[in-house]
């Protein structure tokens, strides 16, 4: 029987309603905090409930094709008919659940985290608007509608990063995020133009149906389209060329970092690549590029993460690195693996961010009492917090073990799935490339484990570096903040069990978890078209990794690496004698290069930002005012005045000159009358 | 033959007088050289058979107008200040060039074949003068054909006189 | 003789022009104009021998006009002199904008 | 509703009313005492708007023929008739004018203090001129209104402007008149050619449409007409009058200048350039140059805008960037391109009009336009900040606002015929953020450090009433542009088919230099009634 979507438009429009209500309260009566406290999370909760209803409906009926929920015709212009309608299929259902689910937990957490802030209502208005745009992005049935969500989330991240706009640093960070996203969106727009030019439509259904016939496999056009789409993805999901905005985005409130810069917005790029899997499958070159940049970002960001002292900066680079993993997953064609890691990452990264938020919140209150101007986010000022923040400590360890890829936790299954898929697909034309990416992925996994353990040790273990009068002000965060932490911790464990690969299921110790590869089958209808194309044009997957050994063996190896790294790291880090930030020496040598983020920001500034500004100023002064205004326009005015002046010089006022003029006249008269005089 | 020689003498006298008038530094000196030119011209008029006109020339021009000029020069006692009012430099060159050009153009105009001038010395005018006398030959056309012009000239002279008086009268 | 007289008239006229352009004294300027007029009279007289008596009649009128013009001109010069104490036309540039 | 309109045969007098009622209002305002003139002008513009609203429902989108058309003899021997009519292209431009005018008048209540009576009279005369240009179907009438419109604008900038107002006013006037004189020559050329072929004079748009022109003639006439409209658009090299005019003009003046006057250029391209000279407007070289100028308009002015110290000058340059998209859309000669150009014109009218009103309100509060003088105002004026940010986002084309729909459509249209041009044009999206966000940040965010900024009042009720319709328009065109697109659909398709037909099979080629015998009577022209 067919799947009947219920109230799908409500899922999307409820957060918008929340935005309007909170917005009005923010403008009219910002001090009335009760309204946003209720409206904010409630709106998301109802959306989540409706999503669940649809999810179970979908589970029961298991529809083969996507269901289109009609809306209205948005842009009817000649042959271009853009419908504003929603598309509900397994992929968008999963994403909606993640967004509304994790979103709701984060809203709950924000009630506690932001209660002291006077922009409380404004915060909830923005965050509701964000969820609305994110749902629109995920549920949109055509490229332009997805683009509305795409730029909408960019706008919300701009507003939320620069939430405390009185600080120039925050406002700059917001501006940087928006402009870098806009560069990515340029790529998205160009891709849309090319798609429309070649397939005559922009709705997903017809484009993917027409794709295999409209584009030749590996052709220049489809490669260009996919690369432009990927440019958009790098902008939004902070990959190598356009990742610089994410670390600066930590200037926003921590729940924002958790929701936008960990769980939802940054995954939009991965979702887009998965959604347009058919196009990427048709362009092997793009697959190599996507996976390549993913692997490079994973490794590069992990290295930077090693040397950061700000707890949120470490997590930010960790996010960039994990996103790199997801792009490796979808880049090699294993869309379900990529989405699986996206889901588990949403859980444990949100958990880690909210945990760090709790730590910062506690540190802030402590430092606030004594008005000591220490940075509440700098790990060198922390240490030994496990005695004061027990729940946060436990949940953060769950998150760390998950991200490091330790056995029962979600990270192990999703990251291992990706690493294995890269190894399995290193066949045919991709052999060399994917083997390289596979090695990079393994090294990045090791680094991930290292910097996460470093973070935990510096923050929670060892002796506290806080002076004792602040120490007794440290106390656990209120319930409204640690309940989401606990829930997310549970999800970080269970989340991994829904897609346990068969090979691992059969292993002795590691097989005790219920294994069903459920997610892979769940996403089957969505990824079927792409896999059919790959199967047609690429050799079959190999059973053994490039250097031998089956999936089970390499799962064991990566598990061993993770555990070993955690043990070694904790031993190494706990022995290092850290001093509070103000007294500790600045990092030197290679550590300084890492700490200064390989000087990427400075390079971008020198190569792009400053030359553009200088060129603009030059253009304005020389071309606009100089050439056009100066020479042509005012020049013409000056020319006519000069001719006038010359004329006036002739009128000397003395009779002789006039007589002379008369004489000349006479002479010319004679010449005219007697032309043959000479 | 004697007329040719006389003509050349008086022509030279006229030209030298004119040059003297233009180039002399002293206004009175230039006035007198102009008078000399007028006498030369009057003599040439006689050679050309215009006896009445030469008389008029001497009486009216040399006598009346030049005296008027002399009177004005004396009135404004300009006689002695010899500051060089000759325009130097580029104007001198330009002036010379212009006058040279005018002279050359007129000379060429005169020389053009289209003017068939009787080369002989005698002209129908001479026996007319014989018959009607020097004054009669002018009087007839003046008072018969040009009577209107004659009257207008008288009005002109009247207006000029009144104008001169009004302009030069000292505002009292 | 007749053509020679015309040539002489041309020369005298040229000298008159030279005087007008070069001299800065108003009175001398006037005299040069008179000279040019006489050059014209000479031309008339010369041609009247070939064409007819009208030439001489016309000279008669020219002389009268010259007289009138001289009178008015000198009156103007006197009134100007009374204002700016000079006849040097370099200072007569009141009309210059 | 339509029944009621038929009953009062609205179609008959509608356009006449729209054109001449402001003129009557003008005399009324001139005679009214100083205090009353303000309110009277508002009433006149409101009545004008209310009467213009039924134009939309009564407009029949199916046919491309001119609706509400009427013809009255004017100067019969020269074939000059008073012809007016409306079609898909000019419908929304007229509505934009009548929609913006009352808001501008209301917006200038507190801004204009000296000689208010003459100011409002000038505004009403301006409205007459603008509406006249959009509905005139007789080239003589069109040219007359084209010039009439310049005079009040000159006085508005010249009298109530800033310090260098005289320079700006003269520059504006000379720049536009220079262009329009060439256009006049071109019009006359066509009229005399028409006379040579048919023996009588006619300035009618439809008659001149059928005048056969050789390729060379078309090129020259295209350049003549094109220059006049390029100056008005303004297209890249001819844009330097706009920043000066905007900076020196009073707020209401620059709102009208930006919201409506710039659309004359675009309207001119659509109405006169494309149909009259199809070969010229598809000649690769000519179109290449125009598109290059359009691109320069988008990229170059965006870069120049980013470094402007004066907020109004910055917005002026952004209008040139927006109109770059219009030119791109028009010369793409595809349905999407032209419709995109129409939408950009409408959305630019709303967003830049609102932006200038906002800057005017800022000027009323702090009497300065230097961006550096502000900072952190969002803490003091939250509502003002919200409206400003929404307007800024609409002008840089955030999806969901009107800016995006227009730019997206014109980019798609341009991509179908000139892919590389569209590619470079799309980068305008980045530079839009490059010039707008720093300005927004320097005015609204950053630290609230200057003492005089700390006590600024938020939006008053009057200001909200002025801004609300504009913000509503921006959101409406962004979210539900269907009615606008449907109404312009047939007219634009008709325009494109005529251009296509006449490009391939032009009417019989008879140049003026053809022998008179060959010319006489060769052209059978269906004379307009």
Q: Would you give an account of this structure?
A:
The complex is a heterotetramer of chains A (678), B (172), C (97) and D (529). Chain A is 72% helix and 3% strand. With 678 residues, chain A is mainly alpha-helical. Among the domains of chain A are: 344-588, no CATH class; 602-677. A two-stranded antiparallel ribbon of chain A has the order 1-2. Chain A is globular and about 125 Å long. Chain A starts with 7 loop residues before the first helix and ends in a 5-residue tail after the last helix. By secondary structure, chain B is mainly α. Chain B folds into 2 domains: 1-81, NADH-ubiquinone/plastoquinone oxidoreductase chain 6, subunit NuoJ (Four Helix Bundle (Hemerythrin (Met), subunit A), Up-down Bundle); 124-172, no CATH class. In chain B, 78% of the residues lie in helices and 0% in strands. With 97 residues, chain C is an all-alpha fold. Chain C has one domain (2-91): Orthogonal Bundle (Helix Hairpins), CATH 1.10.287. Chain C is built from 3 helices and no strands. Chain D has a two-stranded antiparallel sheet with strand order 1-2. The longest helix of chain D is centred in the middle third of the chain and has 34 residues, at 165-198. Chains B and C meet through α1, α2, α3, α4 and α5 of B and α1, α2 and α3 of C.
Task: Fill in the keyword field for this structure.
heterotetramer; B: 172 residues; mainly alpha; Four Helix Bundle (Hemerythrin (Met), subunit A); 2 domains; globular; D: 529 residues; two-stranded antiparallel sheet; 24 helices; disordered C terminus
């Amino acid at each position: 029987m067919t799947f009947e979507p219920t109230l799908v438009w409500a899922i999307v429009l409820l957060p918008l309603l929340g935005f309007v209500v909170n917005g009005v309260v923010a403008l009219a009566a910002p001090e009335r905090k009760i309204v946003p406290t209720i409206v904010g999370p409630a709106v998301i909760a109802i959306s989540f409930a409706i999503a669940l209803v649809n999810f179970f409906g979908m589970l029961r009926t298991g529809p083969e094709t996507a269901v289109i929920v009609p809306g209205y015709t948005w842009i009817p212009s000649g042959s271009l008919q853009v419908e504003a309608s929603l598309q509900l299929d397994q992929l968008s259902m999963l994403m909606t659940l993640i967004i509304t689910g994790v979103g709701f937990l984060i809203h709950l957490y924000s009630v506690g985290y932001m209660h002291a802030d006077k922009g409380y209502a404004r915060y909830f208005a923005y965050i509701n608007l964000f969820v609305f745009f994110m749902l629109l992005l995920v549920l949109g049935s055509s490229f332009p509608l997805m683009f509305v969500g795409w730029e909408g989330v960019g706008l919300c991240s701009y507003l939320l990063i620069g939430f405390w706009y009185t600080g120039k640093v925050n406002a700059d960070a917001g501006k940087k995020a928006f402009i870098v996203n806009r560069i990515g969106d340029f790529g998205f727009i160009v891709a849309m133009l090319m798609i429309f030019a070649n397939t005559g439509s922009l709705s997903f259904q017809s484009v993917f149906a027409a794709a295999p016939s409209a584009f030749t496999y590996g052709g220049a056009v489809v490669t260009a389209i996919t690369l432009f789409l990927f440019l958009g993805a790098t902008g939004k999901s902070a990959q190598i060329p356009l990742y610089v905005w994410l670390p600066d985005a930590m200037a926003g409130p921590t729940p924002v970092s958790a929701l936008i810069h960990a769980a939802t917005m940054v995954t939009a790029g991965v979702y887009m690549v998965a959604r347009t899997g058919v196009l990427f499958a048709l362009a092997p070159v793009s697959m190599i590029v996507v996976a390549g940049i993913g692997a490079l970002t994973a490794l590069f960001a992990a290295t930077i993460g090693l040397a950061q002292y700000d707890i949120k900066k470490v997590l930010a680079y960790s996010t960039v690195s994990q996103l790199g993993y997801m792009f490796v997953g979808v880049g090699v064609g294993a869309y379900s693996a990529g989405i699986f890691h996206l889901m588990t990452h949403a859980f444990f990264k949100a958990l880690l961010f909210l945990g760090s938020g709790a730590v910062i919140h506690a540190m802030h209150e402590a430092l606030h009492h004594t008005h000591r101007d220490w940075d509440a986010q700098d790990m060198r000022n922390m240490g030994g917090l496990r005695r004061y923040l027990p729940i946060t400590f436990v949940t953060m360890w769950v998150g760390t073990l998950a991200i490091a890829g330790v056995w029962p936790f979600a990270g192990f299954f999703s990251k291992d799935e990706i690493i294995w898929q890269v190894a399995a697909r290193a066949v045919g034309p991709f052999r060399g490339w994917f083997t390289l990416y596979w090695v990079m992925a393994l090294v990045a996994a090791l680094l991930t484990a290292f910097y996460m353990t470093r973070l935990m040790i510096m923050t929670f273990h060892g002796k506290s570096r806080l002076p004792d009068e602040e120490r007794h002000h440290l106390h656990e965060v209120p319930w409204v903040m640690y309940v989401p932490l606990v829930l997310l911790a549970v999800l970080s464990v269970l989340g991994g069990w829904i897609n346990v690969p068969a090979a691992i299921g059969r292993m002795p110790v590691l097989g005790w978890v219920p294994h069903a590869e459920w997610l892979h089958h769940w996403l089957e209808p969505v990824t079927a078209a792409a896999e059919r194309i790959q199967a047609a044009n690429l050799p079959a997957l190999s059973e053994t990794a490039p250097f031998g050994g089956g999936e089970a063996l390499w799962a064991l190896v990566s598990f061993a690496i993770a555990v070993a790294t955690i043990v070694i790291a904790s031993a190494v880090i706990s022995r290092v004698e850290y001093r509070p930030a103000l007294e500790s020496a600045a990092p030197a040598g290679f550590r300084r290069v890492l700490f200064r983020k390989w000087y990427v920001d400075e390079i971008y500034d020198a190569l792009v930002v400053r030359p553009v500004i200088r060129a603009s100023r030059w253009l304005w002064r020389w071309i606009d005012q100089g050439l056009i205004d100066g020479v042509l326009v005012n020049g013409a005015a000056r020319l006519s005045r000069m001719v006038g002046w010359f004329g006036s010089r002739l009128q000397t006022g003395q009779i002789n000159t006039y007589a002379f003029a008369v004489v000349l006249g006479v002479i010319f008269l004679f010449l005219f009358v007697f032309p043959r005089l000479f | 033959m004697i007329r040719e020689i006389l003509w050349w003498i008086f022509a030279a006298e006229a030209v030298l007088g004119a040059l003297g008038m233009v180039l002399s530094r002293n206004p009175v000196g230039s006035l007198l050289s102009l008078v000399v030119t007028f006498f030369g011209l009057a003599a040439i008029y006689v050679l050309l058979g215009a006896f009445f006109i030469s008389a008029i020339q001497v009486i009216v021009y040399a006598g009346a107008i030049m005296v008027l000029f002399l009177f004005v020069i004396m009135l404004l006692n300009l006689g002695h200040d010899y500051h060089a009012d000759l325009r130097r430099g580029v104007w001198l060159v330009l002036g010379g060039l212009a006058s040279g050009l005018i002279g050359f153009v007129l000379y060429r105009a005169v020389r053009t074949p289209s003017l068939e001038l009787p080369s002989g010395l005698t002209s129908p005018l001479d026996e007319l003068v014989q018959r009607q006398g020097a004054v009669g030959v002018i009087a007839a056309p003046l008072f018969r054909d040009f009577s209107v012009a004659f009257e207008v000239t008288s009005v002109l002279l009247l207006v000029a006189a009144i104008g001169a008086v009004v302009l030069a009268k000292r505002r009292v | 003789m007749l053509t020679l007289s015309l040539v002489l008239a041309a020369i005298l006229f040229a000298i008159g022009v030279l005087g007008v352009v070069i001299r800065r004294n108003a009175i001398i300027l006037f005299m040069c104009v008179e000279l040019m007029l006489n050059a014209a009279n000479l031309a008339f007289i010369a041609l009247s021998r070939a064409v007819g008596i009208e030439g001489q009649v016309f000279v008669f009128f020219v002389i009268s006009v010259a007289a009138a013009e001289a009178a008015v001109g000198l009156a103007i010069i006197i009134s100007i002199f009374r204002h700016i104490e000079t006849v040097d036309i370099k200072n007569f540039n009141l009309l210059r904008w | 509703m339509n029944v009621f309109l038929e009953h009062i045969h609205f179609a008959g007098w509608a356009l006449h009313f729209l054109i001449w009622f402001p003129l009557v209002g003008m005399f009324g305002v001139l005679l009214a005492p100083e205090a009353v003139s303000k309110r009277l002008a508002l009433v006149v513009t409101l009545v004008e708007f209310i009467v213009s609203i039924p134009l939309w429902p009564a407009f029949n989108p199916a046919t491309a023929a001119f609706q509400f058309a009427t013809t009255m003899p004017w100067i019969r021997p020269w074939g000059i008739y008073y012809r007016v009519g409306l079609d898909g292209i000019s419908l929304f431009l007229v509505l934009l004018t009548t929609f913006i005018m009352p808001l501008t008048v209301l917006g200038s209540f507190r801004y204009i203090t000296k000689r208010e009576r003459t100011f409002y009279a000038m505004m009403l005369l301006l409205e007459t001129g603008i509406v006249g240009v959009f509905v005139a179907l007789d080239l003589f009438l069109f040219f007359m209104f084209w010039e009439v419109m310049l005079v009040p604008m000159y006085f508005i900038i010249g009298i109530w402007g800033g310090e260098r107002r005289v320079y700006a006013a003269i520059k504006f006037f000379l720049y536009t008149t220079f262009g329009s004189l060439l256009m006049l020559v071109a019009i006359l050329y066509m009229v005399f050619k028409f006379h040579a072929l048919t023996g009588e004079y006619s300035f009618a748009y439809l008659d001149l449409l059928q005048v056969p022109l050789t390729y060379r003639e078309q090129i020259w006439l295209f350049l003549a007409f094109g220059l006049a409209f390029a100056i008005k658009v303004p297209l890249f090299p001819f844009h330097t009058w706009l920043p000066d005019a905007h900076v020196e003009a009073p707020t209401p003046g620059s709102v009208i200048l930006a919201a409506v006057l710039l659309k004359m250029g675009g309207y001119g391209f659509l109405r006169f350039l494309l149909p009259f000279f199809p070969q010229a407007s598809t000649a690769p070289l000519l179109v290449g140059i125009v598109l290059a100028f359009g691109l320069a308009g988008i990229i170059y002015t965006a870069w120049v805008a980013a470094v402007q110290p004066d907020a109004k000058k910055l917005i002026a340059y952004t209008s040139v960037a927006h109109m770059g998209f219009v030119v791109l859309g028009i010369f793409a000669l595809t349905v999407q391109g032209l419709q995109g150009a129409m939408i950009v014109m409408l959305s630019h009218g709303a967003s830049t009009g609102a932006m200038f009103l906002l800057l005017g309100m800022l000027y009323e509060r702090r009497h300065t336009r230097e961006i550096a003088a502000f900072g952190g105002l969002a803490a003091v004026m939250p509502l003002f900040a919200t409206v400003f940010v929404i307007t800024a986002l609409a002008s840089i084309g955030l999806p969901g606002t009107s800016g995006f729909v227009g730019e997206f459509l014109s980019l798609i249209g341009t991509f179908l015929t000139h892919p590389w041009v569209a590619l470079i044009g799309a980068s305008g999206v980045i530079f839009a953020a490059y010039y707008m966000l720093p300005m927004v940040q320097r005015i609204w965010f950053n630290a609230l450090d200057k003492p005089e900024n700390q006590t600024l009042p938020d939006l008053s009720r009057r200001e909200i009433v002025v801004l609300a319709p504009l913000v509503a328009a921006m959101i409406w065109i962004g979210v539900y542009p269907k009615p606008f697109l449907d109404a312009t659909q047939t007219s634009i398709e008709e325009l494109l088919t005529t251009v296509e037909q006449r490009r391939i099979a032009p009417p019989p080629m008879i140049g003026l230099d053809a022998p008179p015998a060959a010319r006489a009577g060769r052209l059978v022209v269906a004379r307009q009634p």
